[in-house]
Amino acid sequence: MTNSAVKDVFVMIKQVPDTRSKAGLNPDGTINRAQAKRMLNPFDEYALQAALNVKKQTGCRVTAITMGPPPAIEILYTALEHGADRCYLLSDRRLAASDTLATAFALWKTIEHLNGFQMIFCGLQTTDGDTAQVGPQLAERLNLPQVTYCEDFEVVGDKLHARRVVEGGWQRVVSELPVMVTVANSYHPLEFKSLRGARMVQELMRNEALRSQYITTVDLDVVGADPDLTGLKGSPTIVAKTDKVGSIGGNCAMHQGQAVEALVREVTLQTNLLEFAS
Amino acid sequence: MTDTDQTTPPQEAEPNKPVALNANDPLGEVWVFCELQEGKVQTVGLELLGAGRQLADKLDRPLAAVVLGHNLGEIPRQLIHHGADKVYKADHPDLAEYRTLPFRRVLCDFMGQQAIPPHSMLLGSTTTGRDLAPRIAAHFQTGLTADTTELDIGPYDHKGGSDASKIGLYENCLYAIRPSFGESLKARILGPWKNPQMATTRPGVMIPLDPDPSRTGEVVDMPVHLQPADFRLTIAETVREATAGVDFDNADVIVAGGYGLANADGFALMKELADCFENGTVGASRKAVDLGWIPYVHQVGQTGKTVRPKIYIACGISGAIQHRVGMQNSGLIIAINKDPDAPIFKFADHGIVGDLYQVVPEMIKQIKSSKGSKEVSSVGV
Ligand SMILES: Cc1cc2nc3c(=O)[nH]c(=O)nc-3n(C[C@H](O)[C@H](O)[C@H](O)COP(=O)(O)OP(=O)(O)OC[C@H]3O[C@@H](n4cnc5c(N)ncnc54)[C@H](O)[C@@H]3O)c2cc1C
Ligand SMILES: Nc1ncnc2c1ncn2[C@@H]1O[C@H](COP(=O)(O)O)[C@@H](O)[C@H]1O
User: Fold this and answer.
1) Is A276 in contact with B279 (Cβ distance < 8 A)?
2) What top-level class would CATH report for the domain B243-380?
3) Is A238 domain-assigned?
4) Which of B92, B81, B89, B152 is nearest to B122 (CA)?
5) What residues of chain A lie within 8 A of the CB of B135, using their CB?
6) Model's pTM, two decimal places?
């Protein structure tokens, strides 16, 4: 167990607006970030489970890292409840408006600031950024091989054996460590939090001295990141304009609560379905 | 940002060194990455050549197809016929199958040697394009927009912001347009400060040009200098299922089944409903395909086909983003799901909350009886 090649794994997680709840959604479907509820990016749950599975297999230490405003500490609590060993919150006003390149830069500096690792797990994508870019951009900065769209894997000796999604099928790959892995949402879902973890987090929330043993908050100066290469300044892209997409989303006519016969009749009457009958 | 001296190649590719551009730097080419699968050009590459052609014409610069593989044979010619003015090719046994690091090495080396970096670079939003594009973008510290659905060239007047060095009028920006925020809004994303301006585009969105065998163009070899570090990952096995036989393109109605069918036999019911239509075809979610209930050719979505029938009937499909991108442009979406909170109801046009095993047979019954009544009335006239 302890002589495994894997001693430290990092998992990158992000807090996103909770689009599953109605609070914080403007009438036009945009997100009101100030009012929205927050949650752990659902795709990062798989990444967290992947890291925890490596811990189960090898006994390694799991470090959860997030970049975000102070409330993002909530998702670090979640990570601890599920079995992460320590957490880092990169929080700095100068990070505002970072695009994926600037985000990856800041996360890279944070990772460099910490001690070494053998594996980094990222989610496939975020529900608010929705780019699936930060993981590979981080891997480029760290000069790592990468396994994207990973559906399943196993650490064998000092290698990672993984299965990943490809167009029209799947692929088995073998990678040297260290490696960056983005975990697909076809991986194992996040397991229930442990009672021990939940108790510990209850304790942490009350006890600041204890909290600081598990969660370290850092800023750009601490990790030695040039503020000009992150935030708005370090972002090569900006969102210049948004138009409404009329045809997509939000207006589903729901048919429910009646006998099936009536439900289907409503749909055939309200659509042109029957025109295509042979 | 520093001004780039135009006489020296700006990027003797020192990684992580920005390729800064002045607004009045000479315009670069438009590059399109054309991915191969089992030695064949993928449709998304041809679609991107169609989109890239328009961008290149607006910029009045050449369109270059970029292709890496082994035993390329006629492929460069094929790409020229589909609109490329130039083909940059790397033909090498180590490039026979896509792997991040070797492809990244060849592309970044070659791009770094260009006296004028490409104006823009387009890749498909496939598992390959989305694996490779961010590596290149991070290497050159340039902007990358994911999953675009529209591309254009136009001006941009950047007036404000905290960064004075970015202010100015930029004539020829890549407009990378994509749905965002739960897709009720479109975002136009711009990054004219650094070239190449990069974007990935969903398969099935852009329109390829009809091949023109009389077109000619230049074919240029990209040097291949791989390093031991590029072989840190090896592919043990790639499994792809045969693709042939399902005609999504001409289907008016697609009846798609998912995990909610609970077993392979459910697809008989899907077929029965599809057969009620003049041009009906059966589609499937990846989960149903992975479970072996139906062959891969039926799969709709990010790693399957992009379809746009007049009507799409989703039965027992939750509406995961990877499924949605393959069918959201359908004329009308009818979703049948027993969970009223299923994400598919967020973007379907009509949602029936119920057990598909009750709803679908009823739908078949009503369609058949409507046919009956049509016949009766025509007889009655
Ligand atoms: C890189 C990558 C690429 C992918 N590519 C694709 C792709 O191309 N295409 C694709 O489809 N997916 C793709 N996926 C998978 C995708 O994320 C989802 O896992 C998949 O689409 C889910 O399939 P489903 O909706 O059939 O199953 P589920 O998500 O399990 O949904 C089943 C639904 O059926 C409903 N249901 C159950 N029983 C009944 C009943 N009796 N009557 C009515 N409703 C019922 C349930 O309420 C549920 O909503 C990809 C994933 C990754 C990571
Ligand atoms: N602010 C962040 N903090 C930590 N990890 C992040 C952050 N943003 C993105 N990531 C990681 O990168 C993945 C892809 O994000 P994205 O490129 O935004 O779709 C996420 O699933 C996370 O694992």
Assistant:
1) yes
2) alpha beta
3) no
4) B152
5) 136-137, 139-140, 146
6) 0.85
